[in-house]
Amino acid sequence: xxxxxxxxxxxxxxxxxxxxxxxxxxxxxxxxxxxxxxxxxxxxxxxxxxxxxxxxxxxxxxxxxxxxxxxxxxxxxxxxxxxxxxxxxxxxxxxxxxxxxxxxxxxxxxxxxxxxxxxxxxxxxxxxxxxxxxxxxxxxxxxxxxxxxxxxxxxxxxxxxxxxxxxxxxxxxx
Length: 174
Fold this sequence. Notes:
alpha+beta
């Protein structure tokens, strides 16, 4: 328990600095397991160069895909039926927005050792990537990373919080 309390303040401080540094860059969203995003983000029309005509083939009307996280059972990396449905929607959006790449972050709850959770997070990210690739998303566009238990979505110390932390999180990159 001391270890967790000892890490909370530095992690919170690090998160504040990271959020401040990222506030002007990319839009990153997180989702609650019960909420599925339904909107996309478009660039304003005034971002298109005035010298290019609307019929010019160099101009794409590309929307950033909004993809939802997938969640896992305790100590598992197999995709549930709900996760597969969510990934099918993610794959559809990613296929339509082929100029975007994604990073899949594997996360775990706080139970287990750091080494075990890093390995489990990697298996979760890989299972997620493999399913997206099987749905037609190019593997060259997808990278994976495991954060284990180090970046919890919910700092709570109960099953509800832990369920939110057992996830594969998507970061969309241009």
